[in-house]
UniProtKB/TrEMBL annotation:
SUPFAM superfamilies: Fe-S cluster assembly (FSCA) domain-like (SSF117916), HesB-like domain (SSF89360). Residues 5-98 form the Core domain. The lineage of its organism: Bacteria, Pseudomonadati, Pseudomonadota, Gammaproteobacteria, Oceanospirillales. Coiled coil: none annotated. It comes from the Bacteria. This is Fe/S biogenesis protein NfuA.
Length: 184
């Protein structure tokens, strides 16, 4: 899947078009932080950044760009706008944001590593109310972030080396190193 079905309400479309005109930038980037994980989030930002792996959706007054590999996560995305006496907000609702299906063959290392973690590691960590996600990827080095009961756990280092790192390297041999950003 490369093109996601995205619905922008009339009010949201008008608001985003006005903001694009005000910012003198018709380009909005639709991004996903930590796709397919329990803490994933969608965001919009003004950006003139263009990439050959972008999908583009045209709207009146602006266009949305997103990486094709994110299409499964943003399928069915709804962009809504509301205003009340306290202000206004644009709300992004993505029903598939937390679902990490088998990543496409051309998926980047971060998506593939998160998929391995969710399929092979997190079910075991969840038995102890813990979890792990990819924080970032630098080249072929994967940086992980532990959560839940893994924070402060005396076995965290052992779990990282003997279970998490071993599983990632078995499943994704192109990974050269695994480290963590979590303070235990």
């Amino acid at each position: 899947m490369s093109k996601a079905n995205i619905h922008v309400t009339e009010q949201a479309g008008q608001y985003l078009a006005e903001m694009a005109a005000r910012e003198n930038c018709r380009e909005l980037r639709l991004g996903v932080q930590y796709p397919g994980t329990p803490i994933s989030q969608c965001y919009l930002s003004f950006s003139r950044e263009r990439s050959s792996d972008d999908e583009v959706v045209e709207f009146e007054g602006f266009r949305l760009r997103y990486k094709r590999a994110l299409a499964g996560f943003i399928e069915g995305l709804s962009v809504e706008y509301s205003q009340n006496r306290l202000g206004s907000e644009v709300r992004l609702k993505a029903p598939n944001l937390h679902n990490l299906q088998q990543p496409p063959e051309d998926a980047d290392l971060e998506l593939r590593a998160n998929w391995v973690l969710n399929q092979h590691v997190n079910p075991s960590l969840a038995e102890h109310q813990g979890s792990v996600i990819v924080d970032r990827v630098d080249g072929q080095k994967v940086w992980l972030k532990f959560g839940g009961n893994c924070l402060g756990c005396g076995n965290a280092e052992k779990t990282l080396v003997e279970f998490v790192e071993k599983t990632l390297l078995e499943q994704l041999p192109e990974i050269e190193a695994v480290s963590e950003v979590t303070m235990h």
